[in-house]
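Lab notebook, bench 4. Still working through the backlog of constructs that have no structural model yet. Next entry is a single chain of 186 residues. Request: give me the structure tokens for it.
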Amino acid sequence: MIDQAKIEKAVTSIIQAIGDDPKREGLIETPGRVARMYADFFSGLKQDPVEVLATGFDEMHEEMVVLKNIPFFSMCEHHLLPFYGSASIGYIPNGRVVGASKLARALDILARRPQIQERLTRQLAESIFSAIHPDGVAVILSADHMCVSLRGAKKPGAKLVTSVHRGSIRTQETFRREFYALVGKD
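Model written out:
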């Protein structure tokens, strides 16, 4: 359970630490708003994406299934700044498929934690692989990171792209090529 009262107290301290007045009209409700926002942003901490993916269907579809351009956002665990972008997920069923919304929901569960993009990509691929036991799975995430855009390097528009391949998509180049062709990446 996220302790919203502690978050409110911490935000009040931050407002004071930067030299502003937390009782000022524009800031009075800010600690509560931030606490509610963080409760939402980190709601995936106590959820298991494999449970969401467990609801599937026996289906003898043997060709690649791809869900692409799935919007997501997460919070960089190093700076607590957002990163956001899109995901593409592909898998080759092994007698079982899941609803497209389950793939998107698994992504959201994992993204709503303090994260780094590389781990998020790996966790999503491994969750799909362990939940539905496909012949292969591939995940690509492409994201803008506010910690790169707003601070440090100050390079707005730079995107970090990560990928993970498991099973036959990792071991067989024809499946990898098919996945990249279906998601529109060379």
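Notes after review: The helical segments are 4-17, 30-41, 49-53, 100-111, 117-132, 146-149, 168-171, 173-183. The mean pLDDT is 96. Flag for follow-up if needed.
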